[in-house]
Fold this sequence. Notes:
This protein is α/β, with parallel strands linked by helices. It is built from 13 helices and ten strands. Strands 1-2-10-7-8-9 form a six-stranded mixed β-sheet, with helices on both faces. Strands 5-4-3-6 form a four-stranded parallel β-sheet, with helices on both faces. Helix 3 packs across helix 4 and helix 11 (257-269) crosses helix 12. This is Tryptophan synthase beta chain-like PALP domain-containing protein. It comes from Tetraparma gracilis. Pfam families: PALP. Its cofactor is pyridoxal 5'-phosphate.
Amino acid sequence: xxxxxxxxxxxxxxxxxxxxxxxxxxxxxxxxxxxxxxxxxxxxxxxxxxxxxxxxxxxxxxxxxxxxxxxxxxxxxxxxxxxxxxxxxxxxxxxxxxxxxxxxxxxxxxxxxxxxxxxxxxxxxxxxxxxxxxxxxxxxxxxxxxxxxxxxxxxxxxxxxxxxxxxxxxxxxxxxxxxxxxxxxxxxxxxxxxxxxxxxxxxxxxxxxxxxxxxxxxxxxxxxxxxxxxxxxxxxxxxxxxxxxxxxxxxxxxxxxxxxxxxxxxxxxxxxxxxxxxxxxxxxxxxxxxxxxxxxxxxxxxxxxxxxxxxxxxxxxxxxxxxxxxxxxxxxxxxxxxxxxx
Length: 342
Ligand code: PMP
């Protein structure tokens, strides 16, 4: 399945945004992958790696700690390839994603989101522990295994550049494991050195300050998320995947939840129904494009990743009740002119 159906997603020009700001932001429609997210690529690459190394044998148990989408991707691929699947995740993951993993046959454990990464109850510790205590099990380790970023170095990055025959001024993307940005950055640094690669950091994440100073400003956030409500992104520790591509990431900027949530609805009304991390990436790509424009680039072309689809968030940002409870009523009514906070 992986070779046929995963990847080769279209790079969509976000027309209404582009018209309003006089830029060209392009979104890689990763929500069109069969498991509904960019993580299908990483999951297929991880399974390929553990199969090739002989560690994953027919009928074995695949264990992973996930923000949700890797769990969906692994559950789908394990069903297809004949493995059992265990996924652990923080209690902040949407109920839609958990239901999807269960429907696909995975055993799901929901873990407290309040504990640090070194705590045995942390979702990544649980996946490691279950793999260690189960004969024939493999911990696919999406944070540590570079098979994750290689999926983007050999797939996502080349596909983006091939879709931009006139060249690409910028690429902007947030990090969860860091696999996507590291892989695309590693490819572009060699194949298109003039493309500026920019990290988009959600509120509360320490990665931007790490890139600026070499240290994390928010000690105690080593488990990562900070205070963002945007699922799947934001890290306050250096993952092996981010570290492998980090030297190619020369710029960083922040985007807030409010900006991402406004962009969710603006994109949806333009026919692009995506989750908050995709919308946050679009905000980041827009900010990078405006920065390049101020620097003299005419109609800058910036690509980003539309990580997953909106249907996984019907009980969250796309629920009026959820928005009301968090003081977010009205985000669905703004125009492109009001999307940015500053
Ligand atoms: N958005 C969502 C919704 C995700 O689930 C993830 C993966 N955690 C990402 C973005 C970030 O991708 P990566 O792990 O490649 O950094």
